[in-house]
């Protein structure tokens, strides 16, 4: 049964007529055209679908959209870039450290890193490893991703 739902995505309010049980990932990609979050495993285990919910990294592939209404601030990879095109410090650090190969895990890595740095501005290497733990990467860029998070933390 569809209902009018109000979502706050990347600072903009959207009123959409949806089935409240639709996974947030599908709404972001299919209704709002945001392709940063990816469909990976569909089981909330790979991290490709990560978004920020009030600054906390959360997998969106099984999350019913009804749980993200009522003023929850949803931020996708696209929402991190400033309106003038300037990259978020974490995005810039990932570019500088060349911390991507195929790019499929990149959304989850960056979203997780932003969330981590919001909670712990100067994390240890162990904290960074734990913060990125929920994101699977087959290209072996983990050491570069850790360096990117360290770089972003150092840039303030």
UniProtKB/TrEMBL annotation:
Which key words tag this protein in UniProt? 2Fe-2S, Iron, Iron-sulfur, Metal-binding
Q: Does Transport appear among the keywords?
A: no
Molecular function terms from GO = 2 iron, 2 sulfur cluster binding; metal ion binding; oxidoreductase activity
Where does the source fall among the domains of life?
Answer: Bacteria
Q: Which residue windows are coiled coil?
A: none
Q: Which InterPro entries match?
A: 2Fe-2S-bd, 2Fe-2S-bd_dom_sf, 2Fe-2S_ferredoxin-like_sf, 2Fe-2S_ferredoxin-type, Beta-grasp_dom_sf, Diverse_Oxidoreductases
Q: What is this protein called?
A: Nicotinate dehydrogenase subunit A
Q: Which organism is it from?
A: Hymenobacter psychrotolerans DSM 18569
